[in-house]
Amino acid sequence: MNTASPRPQRLVIGISGASGAIYGVRLLELLRDTPIETHLVVSKSALITLSHETGLSWSQLKPMATVCYSNQDIGAAVASGSFKTMGMIVAPCSVRTMSEIASGVTSTLLTRAADVILKERRRLVLMVRETPLHRNHLRTMTELAELGAIIAPPVPAFYAKPASLAEMVDHTLGRVLDLLDIELGVVRRWRETPEDLPTLDEVEMTIRER
């Protein structure tokens, strides 16, 4: 008889110092009322970005997660491959964080946790937030992709016709959660509501009118 227990529904969430702290905050909000445990690690620079972009402090962010860790706590549960998780999302992911993960020389819990996800062959999604990209950025992304990471820059989907920045953020995060087979109903999927989408004739007419 197979008595193996199912993998716990735990997701590691990393927030680094890149612009776009709202992605990490909103991700925690979306997952808060689900059975999924969120295990949060935030870099020091992320706290600065968080305060500047959202007005939130660390004390306000902590209650949004199931478990929080200090970025200096290299002995935390998420630093070990024996601690089973669904994977990890870094939202947003700075170039420095991306580069440290790619090198394997991890100096913080955030990058160590990501390295663990890679070595255990779990799903690692990096919402890299930088533009334009130079050659080394692209090479680092390629190296990470070859290691098994998924590079998912927060690119808006205009076909969904977002009416607000909040809708744009939710759609982007919904597509990221798709990568871990997590469905929260925040994605307006292409052609699932065809009545809301223009026909080819309507598109051609609009082009002619312009």
What would you say this structure looks like, in words?
- The chain is α/β, with parallel strands linked by helices.
- The chain has a single domain (10-209), classed as Rossmann fold (3-Layer(aba) Sandwich), CATH 3.40.50.1950.
- The protein has eight helices and six strands.
- The chain has helices at residues 21-31, 44-54, 58-61, 95-103, 109-119, 135-147, 165-178, 200-209; strands at 10-15, 37-42, 67-69, 87-93, 123-128, 150-151.
- Helix 1 (21-31) links the parallel strand 1 (10-15) and strand 2 (37-42).
- Helix 4 packs across helix 5.
- It is globular, with a radius of gyration of 19 Å.
- Residues 10-179 form the Flavoprotein domain.
- InterPro entries: Flavin_trans-like, Flavoprotein, UbiX-like.
Could you give a short description of this structure?
The protein is an alpha/beta fold and 210 residues long. It has helices at residues 21-31, 44-54, 58-61, 95-103, 109-119, 135-147, 165-178, 200-209; strands at residues 10-15, 37-42, 67-69, 87-93, 123-128, 150-151.
Element layout with pairings:
Layout: E1 10-15, H1 21-31, E2 37-42, H2 44-54, H3 58-61, E3 67-69, E4 87-93, H4 95-103, H5 109-119, E5 123-128, H6 135-147, E6 150-151, H7 165-178, H8 200-209
Parallel strand pairs: 1-2, 1-4, 2-3, 4-5, 5-6
Helix pairs in contact: 4-5, 4-6
Family: Belongs to the UbiX/PAD1 family.
GO molecular function: carboxy-lyase activity; flavin prenyltransferase activity
Protein name: Flavin prenyltransferase UbiX
Task: Name its key features.
Rossmann fold, 40% helix, alpha/beta, 210 residues
